[in-house]
Amino acid sequence: MASSPLNGHQNGSHSMASNHSQSMASSSSSAGPDGQTTAGRPLFVATHPRACSTAFERVFMVCRDELQCQHEPFSDAFYFGPEFLSHRYRHDAATRRASPAADATYKSLLDGFDQVQREGKRVFIKDMAYYLFPPAGQPAAIAPSLGAGSESGNPTVLPLDALRRFHFTFLIRHPRRAIPSFYRCTVPPVSDITGFTTFMADEAGYEELVRLFDLLVRERIISTDNVTVLDADDLLDHPEETIRQFCLRTGIKFRREMLVWGRDDAEYAAKAFAKWNGWHDDVLKSNQLHGRSQAQKSCTVESEDKEWAEKFGPEAQKVIRTVVNANIPHYEYLRQFRMAI
């Protein structure tokens, strides 16, 4: 088993912050590694950009009788709220103020999940792990709305007490697929819709996903013996079996109709995804999750570089290759824990 690519680079000791106290409803059967039940906790699918995660999320949007899907909720606080962490809109106060998420804090998001759970539905969160971390170069600190300060060994903005309330799962995709897809969304003509006008390597999200994974293992919030890690290739090659196994592991009742989406499902998804216009057009145009019609072609480094240079130009190709190579060890580390299909 490979060791974490981040060994030796974890955040060191910090003074203990006050824990955020809240009581998200949970009902269930199986106990997690910390002795608490997991099936019924808010479900957190932690991922990175362009991991086919929105197609995955659409499957569970069909289950509106038992689940309430939260589409990238922590992006509200990370990019736009008064506690914003990202550099992307740091010097663009007008965009932040104009956002519907301008008042979102990490505490208000947690409180919102709590309210949904109390009303009897299970929260299903699909979100980027990097939204829980200060960007590179910034010290680890708990979000001000959750008490500020810091916790020893915790590099995220959420107190450990809050992290323990989630049932965490992970969704990954090979960087050679995800990074070029992300880059495409940050250059014209797609960037005219997404509003992301520059490619920022620290938004690739793999390193933060590993840091979150390692933190949760250290704190016994998850166990490497039974953690659920999905690879997007498995989802695309074996959609029904992947969804069946995920449901079994997370206490969700599988229904075949989850894989086929009607008009009501499409309208619901369109409203949920509107906050990130331009990022999810392909999945919004689809009416089902089905397997790939043909196997992925084998690629060499040379053929990939040639393809990226033709699509984006030679300078962009170098940037993409650098970011892909930097994140392959993170992907491979997490992939060793993936759910076998």
TrEMBL record:
Residue ranges, annotated region (Disordered): 1-41
Alphabetical list of Gene3D superfamilies matching this protein: P-loop containing nucleotide triphosphate hydrolases (3.40.50.300)
Domain of life: Eukaryota
InterPro entries membership: P-loop_NTPase, Pyrrolopyrazine_biosynth_F
Skewed-composition ranges (Low complexity): 13-31
Biased composition (Polar residues): 1-12
Name listed for the protein in its UniProt record: Sulfotransferase domain-containing protein
